[in-house]
């Protein structure tokens, strides 16, 4: 039994899936950036991307079962040849669409069309901006990223994001620490971005860095792996368990395989029922009240105020 399961046991808690609300599709690992905190280990040289056959099978599932939310992620999800297919298929099925956008993709010549396209289809944009300080952002995401991100946010504001359309920013702490209180950070972000750059946005999500992929490599290279795991375990908050994203979100990999969350996907902790499961193997009711596959990394989602793809949970 690992430390997360011990924490559940000690508090008399059981972690099972509820009713499906969000279908999160990871379309692949290719990205135009190489961020230090990236749990996907995404990069420009990655080649793992969803193919046409599997994209169409995922699309057919969306049309049939009409999930409330279709959340498109990557890598940079826009680099998938099927990004627009998922947006338009989901919209036609009545789903709310989320684009997990790294902002700098908008600044590339090939994606100048993106703000207008997203606005036309009323896609919610969830955008990475781990700080309102240029030095901190560039240290985590690469030199020049902050300046490009500000330019991209202005373009999103120009087509209605942050006013008529939802624009969420994502904060990740720099280093082996927990995020500060989400409401306080949101207020700081809104004041600084409006004052210094004239930028508005809807809300801020605070997300705890997961001890996997590049983040784990950084922790080990600094000799802080044990320290960080101890921090997460000692900060376990039982009130976060009810709101964990794995209870109502289903994560689909670039080959159509299923996971309880995107973090499990990166650790190859695939859902099974005697065999590995793929999206087209199941109906939404098949996974209701199913035990969730857990690991020590789950401590990051239950530390402090909790952490999910929609920010703090408690």
Spell out the blueprint of helices and strands.
Blueprint: H1 3-10, E1 22-26, H2 52-65, E2 69-73, H3 83-92, E3 96-101, H4 114-120, E4 124-128, H5 134-141, H6 145-158, E5 167-171, H7 182-197, E6 203-206, H8 213-221, H9 225-234, E7 249-252, E8 258-259, H10 262-266
Helix pairs in contact: 2-3
Q: Architecture in CATH? A: Alpha-Beta Barrel
Structural class of the helix and strand makeup? alpha/beta
Radius of gyration: 19 Å
Q: Main sheet, how many strands, which sense, barrel?
A: 8 strands, mixed
Mean pLDDT: 91
Instruction: Supply the number of helical segments.
Output: 10
The proportion of residues in beta strands is 5-15%
Domains, number? 1
Q: Largest beta sheet: what is the strand line-up?
A: 6-5-4-3-2-1-7-8
Order of helices and strands: HEHEHEHEHHEHEHHEEH
Give the distance, in angstroms, between the N- and C-terminal Cα atoms: 26 Å
The CATH topology turns out to be TIM Barrel
Could you tell me the number of beta strands?
8
Form type: globular
Features:
314 residues, alpha/beta, TIM Barrel, 8-stranded mixed beta sheet, 32% helix, 11% strand, globular
Folded structure, characterized:
32% of the residues lie in helices and 11% in strands. Helix 2 (52-65) packs parallel to helix 3. It has helices at 3-10, 52-65, 83-92, 114-120, 134-141, 145-158, 182-197, 213-221, 225-234, 262-266, and strands at 22-26, 69-73, 96-101, 124-128, 167-171, 203-206, 249-252, 258-259. With 314 residues, the chain is of the alpha/beta class. The protein has one domain: Aldolase class I (TIM Barrel, Alpha-Beta Barrel). Helix 2 links the parallel strand 1 (22-26) and strand 2. The protein has ten helices and eight strands. The two termini are 26 Å apart. It has an eight-stranded mixed β-sheet with strand order 6-5-4-3-2-1-7-8.
């Amino acid at each position: 039994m690992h430390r997360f399961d011990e924490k559940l046991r000690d508090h008399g808690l059981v972690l099972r899936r509820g009713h499906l609300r969000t279908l999160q599709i990871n379309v692949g690992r290719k990205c135009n950036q190489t961020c230090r905190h990236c749990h996907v280990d995404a990069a420009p040289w990655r080649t793992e991307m969803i193919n046409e056959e599997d994209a169409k099978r995922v699309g057919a599932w969306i049309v049939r079962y009409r999930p409330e939310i279709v959340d498109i992620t990557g890598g940079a999800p826009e680099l998938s040849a099927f990004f627009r297919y998922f947006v338009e298929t989901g919209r036609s099925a009545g789903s709310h669409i989320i684009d997990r956008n790294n902002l700098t993709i908008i600044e590339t010549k090939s994606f100048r069309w993106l703000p207008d396209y997203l606005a036309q289809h009323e896609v919610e944009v969830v955008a990475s901006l781990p700080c309102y300080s240029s030095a901190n952002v560039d240290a985590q995401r690469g030199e020049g990223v902050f300046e490009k991100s500000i330019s991209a946010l202005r373009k999103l504001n120009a087509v209605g994001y942050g006013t008529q359309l939802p624009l969420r920013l994502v904060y990740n702490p720099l280093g082996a620490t927990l995020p500060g209180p989400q409401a306080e950070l949101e207020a700081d972000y809104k004041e600084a971005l409006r004052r210094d750059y004239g930028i508005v946005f809807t809300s801020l999500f605070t997300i705890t860095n997961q001890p996997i992929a590049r983040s784990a490599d950084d922790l080990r290279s600094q000799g802080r792996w044990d320290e960080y795991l101890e921090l997460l375990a000692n900060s376990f908050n039982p009130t976060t368990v009810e709101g964990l994203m794995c209870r109502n979100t289903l994560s689909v990999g670039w080959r159509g395989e299923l996971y309880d969350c995107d973090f499990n996907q990166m650790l190859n902790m695939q859902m099974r029922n005697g065999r590995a499961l793929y999206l087209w193997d199941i109906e939404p009711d098949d996974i209701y009240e199913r035990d969730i596959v857990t690991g020590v990394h789950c401590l990051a989602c239950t530390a402090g105020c909790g952490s999910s793809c929609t920010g703090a949970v408690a």
